[in-house]
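A quick aside before the break. I want you to see a complete sequence-to-structure record at least once, exactly as it would be stored in a machine-readable document. Don't worry about memorizing anything.
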Amino acid sequence: MSDKKTIVIDMDEVITDLMPEVIRYYNALYSSDITLEDITKWDLPKDMRDLFSVPDLFLDLNPVKGALLGMKKLNRLNCNIIIASDCGGDKNIEIQKMYWLERYLPFKDMVNVTEISFGGDKGLLTGDVIIDDGLHNLYSFKKTNPNSTLICMDKPWNREFKGLRVFNWDNITELITLIV
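That is the input. The structure line, written in tokens, reads:
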């Protein structure tokens, strides 16, 4: 059995900057001026969720600032990395996310990425640490991995979380270096 720690890393809003792009589309479509700080609940309104079907939305996302360098740093540590993301059962979104990962984090270079999971329930994954912005994902993971460490990527919709919180990829790499 391996003594390597397994780190589960959420893709949207931890590695990719999804919500700024959704907000940009939303504001253009509805002549609105909402900002990321206006989104204080996980459950988005239907008209905003519908924008997840914009062609190539997930393919064209920017990386979160520092994410690419941070992932490369984690890849050099003695750990296994699982990249996890909910695609809502949409194969097109899954394909876009795979292309995004291959473009920005080529698998040939990311030798410690042992799994890519596009399932919805992160509680089905096994690991020692999870980094996510969705509280439901953190709690589901903890339920099935009771000795795990939860790390919340700070967003307006998760401010009530009382555990470990990170604000950027420098925070993430510092914490994971201490844990691993």
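Two observations worth writing down. The chain has six helices and six strands. Residues 19-53 form one domain. We'll return to this after the break.
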